[in-house]
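can u do me a favor
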């Protein structure tokens, strides 16, 4: 069993600078907004894991159904030598792919990329223990900025699971896919998870559960700002809002100010006023149709070769070749 190795291209100081820039920009524009990546401190990550087990939150279960049914097909189609996972987190669903590749016999290396070095190391150590024949090499980085550090050479399969691409705006998705294609060789592969357009009631419920876990997760971003930037948000003074934007076909999560209030962000020497009812957008989660996914992939330099959904047609995995 070989020890996992780690390349660090994103440090705590880098993240602190990004947070300061994002918060200053997001809280001084109208409408106010914050990027969803700041949800995921230790508490936010725990809450999200709880969300994935909620009855209303179907995407995790639906994607797992697809992988259970088709991991073997993915291994046989790609014959990949290296599996790269973007935004790997705990890499739990990835184990279905690793099991399939172990049976198939082509895979030699696993390269997870994530912004959190501690989460990455923990996940890598578990992978090495269970897949001792794999060379496991982690990259601490941001998938929107550090794709140029992916390993060179062909035979790669990049997995981008969980529907995370839906957190990017359309222009950001185009830039991401172009950057990913530039980091790959012709004949490399992309396995992309996309949540699908469906009835609004099902979609909204997935982001506004009856137990209030998603509401707590949403408000937790304010606690992140309080702790990291010496802000004085009162999270309980903001209501969780989830709504379906039919024009853009995405869910928006927002925090709605319950009253007129003034917030100080001491680390930025910034004072921010919220009117009663004013909303701060904290996430978009785009939902997709097959035609749109295929079109965006083609524009980025990928040809879709396979399309699978769970039996209920809620979530899709597409397997596309770099051309």
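np, heres the sequence
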């Amino acid at each position: 069993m070989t020890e996992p190795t780690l390349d660090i291209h994103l440090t705590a100081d880098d993240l602190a600078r990004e947070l300061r820039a994002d918060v200053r920009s997001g809280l001084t524009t109208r409408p106010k907004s914050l990027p969803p990546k700041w949800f995921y401190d230790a508490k936010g990550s725990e809450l999200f894991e709880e969300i994935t087990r909620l009855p209303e939150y179907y995407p995790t279960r639906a994607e797992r159904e697809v992988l259970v049914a088709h991991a073997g097909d993915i291994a046989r189609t790609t014959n990949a030598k290296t599996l790269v996972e973007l935004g790997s987190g705990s890499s739990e669903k990835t184990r279905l792919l690793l099991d399939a590749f172990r049976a198939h016999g082509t895979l030699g290396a696993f390269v997870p990329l994530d912004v959190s070095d501690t989460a990455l190391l923990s996940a890598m150590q578990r992978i090495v223990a269970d897949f001792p024949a794999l060379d496991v090499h982690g990259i601490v980085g941001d998938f929107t900025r550090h794709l140029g550090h992916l390993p060179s050479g062909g035979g790669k399969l990049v997995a981008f699971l969980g529907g995370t691409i839906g957190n990017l705006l359309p222009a950001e998705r185009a830039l991401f896919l172009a950057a990913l294609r530039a980091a790959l060789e012709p004949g490399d592969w992309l396995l992309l998870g996309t949540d699908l357009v469906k009835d609004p009631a099902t979609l909204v419920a997935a982001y506004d559960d009856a137990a209030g876990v998603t509401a707590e997760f949403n408000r937790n971003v304010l606690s992140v700002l309080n702790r990291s930037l010496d802000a004085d948000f009162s999270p309980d003074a903001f209501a969780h809002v989830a709504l379906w934007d039919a024009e853009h076909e995405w869910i928006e999560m927002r925090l709605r100010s319950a009253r007129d209030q003034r917030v100080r962000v001491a680390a930025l020497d910034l004072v921010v006023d919220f009117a009663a009812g004013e909303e701060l957008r904290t996430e978009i989660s785009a939902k997709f149709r097959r035609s749109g996914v295929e079109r965006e992939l083609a524009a980025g330099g990928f040809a879709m070769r396979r399309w699978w959904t769970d039996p209920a047609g809620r979530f899709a995995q597409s397997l596309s070749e770099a051309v």
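The mean pLDDT is 95. hope that helps!!
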